[in-house]
Amino acid sequence: MGLRIIVFSVILILLLGIGAGVFYFYYHEEPVTKPLITETKEAIVQNYTYFKIYYPVGSKMEIIEKKVPGLMNQTKKAETLIKEYLRVSRELDTGIIPPDTDILGVYISDDGTLYLDFNTSLKDNFTGDVTDEYMLLKSISDTMISNLEIEDVVILVNHKEVETIGGHFYVNRPIKELLRIYTETGTQP
Amino acid sequence: MFNLTKKHLIIYSAIILVFISHITSFALPAKYIKIRYSKSDGLVRIVLESNSYNLIRKSKVFTSYSLVKIAFHDYFVLEPEEIETPLFEFNHKGKNLYFNIKELKWIKLLRLDNPPRLVLDAIVEGKEAVPPKPPAPPEGKKESEQERKPVTEKRTIVIDPGHGGKDLGIYNPSKSEKDIVLRIARKLRRSLSRNKYAKVVLTRSYNKDLGILKRIMIARKANPGLFISIHLTSSNSVKIYTALGRNPEGRESYLLSESQSKFINESRRFAEAIGDSLKGVLDIEISYESLNIPVISSMNCPAVLVELPGPDFLDYNRKNIALISKAIEEAILTLWD
């Protein structure tokens, strides 16, 4: 009987040890420390992330490629990508993104929907016609979907859904699906 | 004290395993749908709120007379299971929800997030919401032809001045699209109102915020024979948009494009009439585009969206506004004749 108690105690201690180990490796976070020699670390980085950014020229869409140092997870990649998209739009003066537009947050849901949360400038200062608004939605959708493993994109303004950006098209649903509806010919009667 | 046998150890291990598996299953919350509803004049709004985005997004809605079937892709818990109301009855079977909405005329759908919800706006028979049906047409004609009325009957035209309120549209330091299109719409209303057979409805007659859905509701309530939405373009040209056509079978009626599909050819004729007429007064490039812009694709009549040159390219003084208004009026009267 004594032997059984000893065996059981040893197994229990082992299990507790394994549990503590798992707990430590899963939940313990190393304190954030600055790298001692940052220049050396940057120099070592050999990996790059390549982005295809879509932008409108009149009623046509063109692509520019951008190379960003480092490899990223999906959310970080999405955040970097939308910032690059905004920067490229300003640099190329596409005229569809209001000047003070910025991104407040990026979130990818479990079903693969990317939520892009813009500041109010996107809606308040947008001054475009039907084509401009359509190209704005299409360039965002094409840029995000072609670079990320996502299904669709939802635009939020200041953390909320809005009915429209420029008064011509709905944006209160995932925009890839909406763009398909806007251009869908269907069957003529 | 610790009189443990092999049998005890097996039992304890089994209990621990069962306990862990139950904790895991409890950690995944069950999908639910909560029903709430409200009624205003001629409209019953049913809101299905869920804790699952997929449940709402992947749902499909089918209507047949007063019966509305909502097919979900997964099982769910319904809260509450019963509602006592004379407005509608509902049944929950498997992955489907069935509504029987009394005196249902047509239905609008909206899928919203945060929280995920499906909004069904059921337009029911009522003196305010639904205009009376036109008299039964002779057999053997297409629906669009059937709905044509003789010239001697009063016809309704809805004019939609784009933007408004905080939404300026295209602007320069001195002029904004929302004001220019409102002036054109008002002038057009004054001109058309002289015709005793024309009834003119404006979606907005002053400077106010008006969303897309609200415009559609105002226009459809007026039961128009023609619909024209007036905007400006950011270029020195005129663009006239018509819808593309019907969406495939099974498409929900969110954008109501099926309504417009019956009138595509008439809408294109209307667009050409406006284009020809504007070409006569503005020596400018006219182009025709097809796109399911919600405000026109939702219309149950010939419908166009006209974009006039931006304020940087045309001086919208009194004379030019009168000319543009006259040109559009002539196009409308030509089409009616």
Description of the structure:
The complex is a heterodimer of chains A (189) and B (337). With 189 residues, chain A is of the alpha+beta class. Chain A has two domains: 1-33; 43-183, no CATH class. Helix content of chain A is 43%, strand content 20%. Chain A contains six helices and five strands; from the N terminus they run ααββαββααβα. In chain A, the strands form two sheets. In chain A, strands 3-4-5 form a three-stranded mixed sheet. In chain A, strands 1-2 form a two-stranded antiparallel sheet. With 337 residues, chain B is α/β, with parallel strands linked by helices. The longest helix of chain B is centred in the first third of the chain and has 22 residues, at 6-27. The radius of gyration of chain B is 27 Å and the shape is elongated.
In short:
Chain A is an alpha+beta fold and 189 residues long. Chain A has 6 helices and 5 strands, in the order H-H-E-E-H-E-E-H-H-E-H.
CATH H-level superfamily title of the largest domain in chain B? Zn-dependent exopeptidases
Helix content range of the residues of chain A, please?
40-55%
**Pair of chains with the largest interface and how many residues each contributes:** A-B, 38 and 53 residues
Radius of gyration of chain B: 27 Å
User: What low-confidence regions of chain A span 5 or more consecutive residues with pLDDT below 50?
Assistant: 29-43
Poorly predicted sequence stretches spanning 5 or more consecutive residues of chain B: 127-150, 248-254
C-alpha geometry of chain B: elongated
Name its key features.
heterodimer, A: 189 residues, alpha+beta, 2 domains, two-stranded antiparallel ribbon, B: alpha/beta, Immunoglobulin-like, Aminopeptidase, 6-stranded mixed beta sheet, 9 helices
